[in-house]
Amino acid sequence: MSSRNNSIDNACRVLILLSEQDAGINLTDLSERMGINKSTAYRYLSTLEQYRMVKKKDNRYTLGLRVFEMGNRVPVIRLILERIYPRLLELGFLFNETISVGILSDSEVMILERIEKGRSLVNQVFTGTKVPLYCTSLGKAILSVMPEEHRDALLAEIHFEKLTPRTILTREKLMRDLEETRKRGFSIDDSEYEEDLKCVGVPLFFDSLGVLSAVSVTGPRSRMTCERARHIGDHLRQSVDSFIREMNE
Prior knowledge:
47% helix; two-stranded antiparallel sheet; 9 helices; Beta-Lactamase; six-stranded antiparallel β-sheet; 2 domains; single chain
């Protein structure tokens, strides 16, 4: 007797079919490709849409944001952290500031690793803490390299909350900030999440693994002058780019 469940089997077939359609697929074509009637296909799609596994736009269906996010929760994350940890220690000693690694988690960034060397900080961010995408250097670094469709879906869910006088509060201003981030190669949180702290972030992106994460350096705003922030950002980007090349070899 087969141990396969027809409903689960068909749901998996839907997701696999959608993964092969860059421009999405409509209900009629999907039902024909799967060999099931439209009402049955619609039930599968509607259920998957409720779990954000599928997204509907202009009567076409594509993979949803949840599938993209789930790809980040695989054991490879631990491998990446183990490999990058010595480099994080070097950066900590070099800059004498706090180094953090964060990964996309739902519509926020979860802190995976945090290293404090020398002049440690007093703030409310610890390993396991979730911080916003729109006003942290980790979040903005991740958003800057995220596929447009996934970024737009995430931003549609975000409620912009004023955390400090400098917090970005509109999507338009955030998009301009992300464009600047891409041009210079690193993101900046200029006391947008916590007052008197300034952070510089660089994306840690592995396209083939579906991993969207970032590395940041955080220090008091009084120490993180524009010149020092640029120096740190350039060095951080070079270090992370070198690590990504090593991991891809």
